[in-house]
Amino acid sequence: MNLVWKLLRQHISIPQFIGFFFANLFGMFIVLLGFQFYQDVMPVFTAEDSFMRADYLIMNKKIGTASTISGRSNTFNNSEIDDVSSQKFVKKVGKFTSAEYKVTANMGVNGTNVLNSEIPVEAVPDEFIDVPLQEWKYTAGADVVPIILPRAYITMYNFGFAQSHSLPKLSDGLVGMIDFEMFVHANGNQRSFKGKVIGFSSRLNTILVPESFMDWSNSYFAPDSHSEPSRLIMDVSNPADEHIGEYLSKKGYEIEDEKMNQEKTTYFLRLMVTMVMVVGLVISILSFYILMLSIYLLVQKNSSKLENLLMIGFSPSLVARPYQVLTIGLNVTVLLIAWLILYFVRDYYMNIIETLFPQIEDGNMLPALTVGCILFILVSIMNIFAIRRKVMHIWFRKD
Question: What is the value of pTM for the model shown?
């Protein structure tokens, strides 16, 4: 093996291997950065509201001066709902059911009263709520009601009330600290319910309760009242589909809080990250080709001497091993340096992201570590087999 190392050192081209090293480092870094950045940024668009999938859109009719003067209703009738359901980009449609009675709420944290006012309460079909069934369940007549609060409530509390009253700030993991009471007033009757907060939603501007509670309470407290839904929730196949915007414009509908733009941003973020990773993979493949070309040239220069070593008893595995060790060593060095650079780059952009979005959870580099190890294993295996195949050609005098 020492003889092979001596032959290797005699003909090794430093510029060739430097070129391979930086090309492979650049390609590996782009792939790891693209994948890690995607994993770190996606919670900004999706994890903020885990109760509804990203491709659920909340739709309502536009309210303008003309519609107000003309007295046009902003609710959806059955024919309009059927028309929405028949669109090709729609998988399913659900209705928002509103409370037909007056509801006031009292919210407190650690015994301190935070909110005491009339509140809007709505429900959507349970199939649109992504929580365990046992948590989103209500038995008719029970005093405890599961609820999902708008995240705007918690934002106002954390950055306003809590700061000025020296109270603890709340996060998704501290919902148990919230004391929530709902008081129903209808037909001279009043009843209180304890709200069990199971989380916060950024996609809703009302308090969400189970559909079973809404159906029971409407029939119990306001049996003679019924109103059409003013909002619909849609499950669409692709939020960035241009036909959605065309349909909304034609019908005079709109998506609440510009969620359509957010979903389009998420879609194009995925597309851009994919393109960046493809570029990185192409660079990595080219660098792999450069390395193999360099190894082939080294083996070719020493082919006659390597053939002699094989003929005097050296095995093909022993002859190929120094070349394989060289390539694997270069691959390990590239991977470690790529991880190191990524650590500092990620630390820089995560500081910016956490400043803009304080509620985002700090992730880790496990995605980049995993992808890096997979690429290293794949490239190393291909290197080992390619070099052994070249040495075997010499052994059988096929060159």
Answer: 0.54
